[in-house]
Design a protein that fits this description.
Layout lengths: L20 E2 L6 E9 L4 E10 L2 E7 L4 E6 L2 E6 L2 E4 L2 H9 L2 H6 L1 H4 L1 E11 L2 E9 L5 E5 L9 E6 L2 E13 L2 E10 L4 E10 L7 H5 L6 H18 L2 H6 L1 E9 L2 E5 L1 H14 L1 E7 L4 E4 L3 E14 L4 E16 L2 E11 L5
Parallel strand pairs: 15-21
Antiparallel strand pairs: 1-17, 2-3, 2-14, 3-4, 4-5, 5-6, 6-7, 8-9, 9-10, 10-11, 11-12, 12-13, 13-14, 15-16, 17-19, 18-19, 19-20, 20-21
Length: 344
C-alpha cells in the first residue's frame, strides 16, 4: 500500500465537489426491462439505483455483464472475471439509470437550470438542464402533461442520445414510464419494463442486491459505508461485527484499544442517547488498499436527535479509517477522527 501524508486534521479540507451520499436514505429504484434493439438483438436489463454515487445495471444475455458504481470506484463483472473500470463505465452505468434521471433529476446533476428551445423528437421544447459528473449535459424535456416529461437527451461531445418516455403508469404515487425508446444515432433500443419499484428499501439493500466483488478498494469503501449504516440503524452489534479483534481509536488526544465486544457495549449506549437520521459522505471518500490492508479518508455530516432533551444535532466530522482483511473479511482496525469546531 502506498504511503500517505493524509491525517485526520487535514481531511476537513477535502472538497465538497457537489458530493452528498446519505447512508440513511431509504429511497431506491429497482427495475427490470426486456430490450429489443433495431439490429435484432434482445436481452434484459436489471437496474439498481440508490444514489448518484451508488448504482448498478445488469445486462442479462448469453454473456451477462454487471456494471457497478460505488462512490469513487467503478467495476464490471463478466464471465471472465471482475475488474475495476474507468470513467467510461461510470458514465455508462449512471447513464442507464433512466428512471432516476426522470424522477430525481436534480439529485443526479450539477448546476441545474431551466433552458428553452431544446431540439427533441422533431420539435423544440423547454427543459431542465444539468451537468453530468463525467462531462457533458443531460436535458429533462418538458411534456404537455404535468409529471410526464417527453424524455431525456444526453449530450456527450458531438453525440446526442435521445430517450423518449411512453406508457405512463402510477407507481407509489408517482407517474412512471414503462416504455422507453433510446436512439443513439446508430441503433434504437426499445425498453419494455415489467417492473419499476419505487418503494423505500432497507438501507443495506444495495449491498444485499450487488454482492461484494472481492476487490480491495471496493471492499474497504463498503466497510466505511456499512459503519455509517450501523449508525443509521442504531445497530451496535452490526458495528461490532465490522471491527477487528483488536482496534485502535484515536480521538480527543487519546489512543483507545478496543474489541468488538467493547464496541458493542459502547455504541449500544451511544445509540440510546443519539438517534441518527442522516449520515452523509460530503466528499468523495479517498481509499487506498492492497490485498491485505487499506485505509479510507472521509468527510461526513451527521444529523439526528437526542431523545433525552429533544434537541437536534448537526455535526461535521472527518476521519481516517484503517482496515485489514482478516480470515477473508475486511474489518476496521483503527480510526483517527476530528470534529469541525462549528458543529452543533
Amino acid at each position: 500500500m502506498r504511503k500517505s501524508t493524509l491525517c485526520a486534521g487535514l481531511i476537513l479540507g477535502l472538497s465538497y465537489s457537489g458530493h452528498a451520499d446519505d447512508a440513511c436514505d431509504a429511497r431506491a429504484i429497482y427495475s427490470m426491462a426486456d430490450v429489443t434493439v433495431s439490429d435484432g438483438t434482445t436481452y434484459q436489463v436489471e437496474g439498481f439505483f440508490k444514489s448518484r454515487h451508488r448504482a448498478a445495471a445488469r445486462f442479462i444475455r448469453e454473456n451477462s455483464t454487471l456494471h457497478v458504481l460505488e462512490g469513487p470506484n467503478v467495476w464490471v463483472q463478466t464471465a471472465s472475471g471482475t475488474q475495476l473500470a474507468d470513467d467510461f463505465q461510470r458514465d455508462f452505468t449512471v447513464g442507464h439509470q433512466f428512471h432516476a434521471f426522470l424522477l430525481r433529476f436534480e439529485d443526479l446533476v450539477s448546476n441545474p437550470e431551466r433552458v428553452q428551445n431544446i431540439d427533441f423528437a422533431g420539435g423544440q421544447y423547454a427543459a431542465h438542464k444539468g451537468e453530468r459528473d463525467t462531462g457533458g449535459f443531460v436535458y429533462l424535456i418538458d411534456g404537455e402533461t404535468p409529471g410526464q416529461p417527453l424524455g431525456l437527451r444526453y449530450d456527450v461531445g458531438d453525440l446526442k442520445i435521445k430517450i423518449t418516455a411512453r406508457d405512463w403508469r402510477e407507481v407509489s404515487g408517482e407517474q412512471v414510464p414503462f416504455s422507453l425508446s433510446i436512439d443513439d444515432g446508430e441503433r434504437v433500443f426499445d425498453y419494455r419494463y415489467s417492473t419499476v419499484d419505487l418503494g423505500d428499501k432497507p438501507v443495506m439493500w444495495f449491498y444485499d442486491s450487488v454482492p461484494s466483488p472481492d476487490i480491495p478498494l471496493v471492499d474497504v469503501e463498503r466497510l466505511h459505508r456499512k459503519t455509517l449504516i450501523a449508525h443509521c440503524l442504531g445497530d451496535a452489534e452490526l458495528l461490532a461485527s465490522l471491527t477487528a479483534p483488536s482496534a485502535t481509536i484515536a480521538n480527543r488526544g487519546s489512543l483507545i484499544e478496543t474489541t468488538p465486544e467493547e464496541m458493542a457495549s459502547r455504541f449500544a449506549n451511544v445509540f440510546e442517547r443519539r438517534k441518527y437520521s442522516a449520515y452523509i459522505d460530503t466528499a468523495m471518500p479517498r481509499v487506498s488498499a492492497d490485498e491485505r490492508v487499506g485505509w479510507a479518508a472521509v468527510q461526513v455530516n451527521t444529523k439526528g436527535r437526542t431523545p433525552a432533551n429533544g434537541q437536534n444535532f448537526d455535526e461535521h466530522w472527518a476521519w481516517v479509517m484503517m482496515a485489514e482483511k482478516i480470515d477473508g473479511q475486511w474489518l476496521m482496525t483503527g480510526n483517527a477522527s476530528n470534529l469541525r469546531p462549528d458543529s452543533r
